[in-house]
Amino acid sequence: MYYKIKDNVLWRNEKNSFMILHPVSKKLMIFWKDISDFVSKWWIIDGFKLKDNVSIKYLIKESIVADYLIDFDINNHIFWSDNFVSAPLNVTIQITNRCNLQCGHCHKVDKWCVNIDKDRLITLIDELHEMKVFNINISWWEPLMYEWLSDVIKYIVSKWMKITMSTNLVLWDENMANTMHQLWVRQLHVSLDSSDETYHDHMRWHKGAYLTTIKNLAIIKKAGLTFTLVTTLVNQSIDDYSKIIDLSYKLWASWHKTNILVPQWQWKSIETWYYKDLNLFKSYIRVFLQKKKKYDKKMSVIWESMFMISIWENMDNKPDILKLWCPAGVLTCAITEKWNLLACPFYTELSMWNIYDDSFKDLWTKSVLLWKIRVCKENDGSWCQARAYWISKSIENNDPYIHKNVYDANNHDFYNNSAENRNDFISVVWHWIKIEWEKWNKEFYWLIHNYLMSSDLTLEIWTWTWIVPKTLGCLWKKIISIDFSDNMLKLAKENCSMYDNVLFMKEDIHALTFRDGNFDLIIKRLAPDDLWEIFRVLKFGWNFINFTNWERDWMELKELFWFPFHQSVSDYKSQLVKQWFEMIYEDEFEFKEIYNDFDILIKMLHIAPIIPDFLDREAYYIDKIKTEFDDTNCFVLTRHKYLVNAKK
């Protein structure tokens, strides 16, 4: 059985992704290799290999494909997807630079008098349809001020393409909303700068803009149009930004999208707080991530179209064609009212070429600048390349306002979300450790989390594992992590370079250089002890948490090599009391680790300080352990841990 894709359906098969624009809902559906590998370059799907495939059944049900009788040699058809993106998924067309508002964050460069040439625009639409571009976004500045808007929309719809529109909504009324619905406009991008009427009107330089926009949102909703509320971050407060997203949900928005300024043209004159303070910028991201979770399955909360902050989760589950940091010049582009081709609408200072007298397809495939932009993405995925270009005037640099900080904020939210469900959190963080460890590490981090959030300064003793600062640095609390090894400190710094709130120092646990009562919290994990020094540098009334090995830990190796056993738990508790610590919480646990792979056991001995002189006498130890291993074909080790929380 073979299926033919119907003539009124726009589709492409590229980058292991079979893409179809639903002819009725205009939803872009992306199917993966399970379908794309069986779609020919023409319009035939090999159904013999997809007989029970759910996606094929859906396409049949939606009348997107139909049965097809092959009357020629099917072997002449190629069934695989192209490994490149032949055309953008979306093209933004800025049809006019006329506008009814004078927004403070608009990056206009000309007087408001230019409309795009209608006849040339119709020709461009034909070309985009031929290239199978799925969506045209009619944009900037206010599309309703373009006198041929209805004619252009009708023509786009006649080509079975999807159309979206960006608008400030001030000029809309009930008649306009119904007209747009009849013209098959289904999705609007509406700008909303604040939850505060005064601030929004100030940014728009138009008194009453806020109330008019709110009123017209109800009108377009009644007319059956869905909408995204778009907020451009300028200098809104963190609280206002949070309220804007909440307001969007109350106003029945399907999406809320956050844009941040790309300082080009007029935007360069705007002083933005978060460009001077990256910590403030991280705070915005944290709010975004909290709201994204809060409104999951209720309203989509996104950050700059297709950017990785919006699709960070489950990257392995994303279609190959969407695995891009920045879509500019690959999945999207823009054409201005003066026919300049831009890699994206925010790349205003770098035109790829003027396409009025040239073919869009030729420039899309042959532009040297576009190919340079695409190569940069393949090399390191430099996030918002327009913002990177503003900073360095080079398309090859990274964007410092997203490239690092999105990762940081994701870790912050990842930890906080998981702190609410610590089973999920620790099982992910410790996925490379034996399952028996999970319960005790969960408890360890649970204890730390309770105190760290109220701590101004925390000391972590012996950071050789770097696990603690890497896991907890995302809470943005000040942590000093110490170790006596230069190499261990170097490794820890490299692994935690994303956190400027963690300071690494070389210190001797027996002679700390910190003043008395310097720390609110002291954490020690698998580290040597000096209770006197710990007591000295800890503030009165504050907490010390220790997680370490005890007398029966690795007892099989101790018995094999006649090593002395560690002090007992009861002995340690006595020492804490003698040092004037008050016991708050304790837990003791024991479990077995089974090593069926001898090489893994030896690797563990290389990295864990179990046998003090293992590296010096490696051959001796390995030979003796191997004898024991060969007898049973496995090695069972007892692990004995003790977790204690004491207060000064």
From TrEMBL:
Q: Which CDD domains does this chain map to?
A: Radical_SAM
Output the InterPro entries linked to this UniProt entry.
Aldolase_TIM, Elp3/MiaA/NifB-like_rSAM, Methyltranfer_dom, Radical_SAM_PqqE_MftC-like, rSAM, rSAM_sf, SAM-dependent_MTases_sf
S-adenosyl-L-methionine as a keyword of this entry, yes or no, is yes
SMART domains this protein is in?
Elp3 (SM00729)
The keyword RNA-binding appears for this protein: no
The protein's GO terms of the molecular function aspect are:
catalytic activity; iron-sulfur cluster binding; metal ion binding
Q: Which UniProt keywords apply?
A: Iron, Iron-sulfur, Metal-binding, S-adenosyl-L-methionine
Query: What sequence ranges are listed for the domain Radical SAM core?
Result: 85-296
Q: Which residues form a coiled coil?
A: none
Query: Pfam families per the record?
Result: Methyltransf_31, Radical_SAM
This protein is called Radical SAM family protein
